[in-house]
Design brief:
homodimer; alpha/beta; 434 Repressor (Amino-terminal Domain); Rossmann fold; 3 domains; 14 helices; DNA-binding; transcription (chains A, B); LacI/GalR-like_sensor (chains A, B); Peripla_BP_I (chains A, B); DNA-binding (chains A, B)
Chain lengths: ~350, ~350
DNA sequence: ATGAAAGCGCTAACAG
DNA sequence: CTGTTAGCGCTTTCAT
């Protein structure tokens, strides 16, 4: 209980110098007598000495590893799972992951980023669709802190993990097409970012290739990127007369399904719904959600591995990009088109 | 791009001393000439100088505020929402919350706790049912870092936020009783902790008071505290012949409902299900989940406020405990007992 | 086998 | 108005 015990206290009590204590405690004390070593160890245990992290990192720079993880919202299943992937690698590699959940607020994101810079973080995983590379570099004060991007714009530079969103969109379209749907909707998001654009492009082009009309004026609706966002769009979706809808992500899909149910619209009998991501929840909602699977956990693992690589080989090849596969998971929220 | 710019660099370039720069940059530079001030500011912007956090906190001790938040699992909606509550206060108060998600692994919890100590964190919010006060004090090296407990054992010491779990159990029982149920089950957890014990006690005693038998041998089943845990218990629940089940929390309830559905058992017609917590998901599952509401977000807010209080008045009254109300939210997963 | 001294980047008396 | 000095807690040459 009480004030902090410093290395100096230990040294004084042991009747040796701080150097000795430091060396012994860091396992570099082979050259000291056994007696001294044991005395120091005992004192440490007795007073529960813990080295001060700040003092330490002030000197040792990069040798202590902390990585920052900036996500829009930890409480979304998608990012929660992603973070778990990060943690797994972090743990193996003895890295401490600092998690910051910025609630999709650009100002907060900025603040947190700056915080991390001040804390001389060793690397950064940024999952934010909002920030541009410029904003990031700005917040990073143009320091060369390695970072990797996730779930965001393609056209940006920087190492990153990617999944083939375009292909995901294709898969969704093919699935719906195979079920006989012709009136399809893409329930996108208001602040569209490249990943969603790609999903829609894949979806749209696949459909158009079948001589079925799909254009942004009639077949695109926009929701907030959340369960509630999807929920709010139930009525517009119904009014559109579509028999199938492909949503920006699973959260939106789940919200939409709730809205449809409350409006007396059956899924998939009246309207088929297909989501994106394959979050855990998908199997627990009713009907179980058909979706495009992304290996979320692995994305977290992959992102961390690439980051580590960048940290350890700062001068390595230009940009590293890892691609992860997506696939269709057909469940019960999609079915044959009943209409016509 | 590149190496770190220190206060010394700025001083040299401005042709002044480090003191001057430090003072000016910290807004304590009223006494310096406007010219000097502007020169320094300009240099700072130009070289994007950011003070080193470690060097800073080495000197300034407590005046920079960082709080640690240890939760079992950020990706569970419950803790996600809780953390959001913490963040809200943190932001107002200019605190940086460091979030650690320990995955319910005691060893990891321990590790993270130690990490926080090293980082001379100013305070701690611990949501872990597993750790005892002793373990915590141990990990904290008996330092007097203020911490507050959440979602855990009652009999422990320490400031904390509490909700009336016993009353929650009572409410659940009353609700089910009013619906005419007589064969009720409590779907508890394997590693039972005080909060769950209380919920069950309130439930059990309310039922027993009605001359209805409820005892641990026949009316208690144990699941893992997760969706999957509830899911796994569907068959045992069915085989028990109960017409209503009260689950340890909503995650378990949602898993159970999925399991029941897959077994062809209807909720609430065949079996009523009532959960605990009132997580966001409850309104999105089908049927919508009846539950005991806890003000999760407010719990996060409250926990942080108490912690802050403790940090700022270390010598204040012994222990501060804040109680938050619980209430029944009747939705569609519970209904009149059809059997009899 | 051990310690003195320097210094990481910064702030804060205390002198001018 | 500005600079000197000391020192936070620690690691690390380099002597002894």
């Amino acid at each position: 209980m009480g004030k902090k015990v410093t290395i100096r206290d230990i040294a004084r009590m042991a009747g040796v110098s701080v150097t000795t204590v430091s060396q012994v405690l860091n396992g570099k004390g082979k050259r000291f007598s056994k007696t001294t070593r044991e005395k120091i160890m005992k004192l440490r245990d007795q007073y529960q000495y813990v080295p001060d992290f700040h003092a330490r990192s002030l000197i040792m720079k990069g040798s202590i590893n902390t990585i920052g993880v900036l996500v829009p919202n930890v409480s979304e299943s998608f990012f929660g799972t992603f973070v778990e992937g990060v943690q797994q690698v972090a743990r193996q590699e003895k890295l401490i992951p600092l998690i910051f959940s910025a609630n999709r607020e650009p100002k907060l994101e900025q603040e947190y980023l700056e915080q991390m810079v001040e804390r001389s973080i060793d690397g950064l995983i940024i999952a934010s669709a909002r920030m541009t590379t410029e904003m990031i570099n700005q917040a990073l004060s143009n320091r060369d802190i390695p970072y990797i991007l996730f779930d965001r714009n393609y056209d940006q530079q920087g190492a990153r993990v990617l999944t083939d969103d375009y292909h995901g969109g294709q898969l969704a379209a093919q699935h719906l097409l195979a079920l006989g749907h012709t009136k399809m909707l893409f329930l996108g998001v208001k602040n569209i970012t490249e990943n969603f654009k790609q999903r829609m492009a894949g979806f749209q082009e696949t459909i158009n290739a079948q001589e079925i009309n799909f254009d942004e004026d009639h077949n695109l609706l926009k929701a907030d990127l959340s369960k509630d966002g999807g929920y709010q769009m139930a009525r517009p979706v119904i009014e559109s007369g579509a028999t199938a809808v492909f949503t920006a992500n699973d959260e939106v899909a789940i919200g939409l399904m709730r809205g449809l149910r409350e409006q007396g619209v059956r899924v998939p009998e009246d309207i088929s719904v297909i989501g994106y991501d394959d979050i855990i929840l998908d199997e627990y909602v009713y009907p179980q959600l058909t979706t495009i699977h992304q290996p979320i956990f692995k994305l977290g693992v992959g992102a961390t591995e690439i980051l580590l690589n960048k940290i350890n080989h700062p001068d390595a090849e230009p940009e590293q990009v890892e691609h992860f596969p997506v696939k269709l998971i057909a469940r019960q929220s999609t079915g044959k088109c009943q209409q016509n």
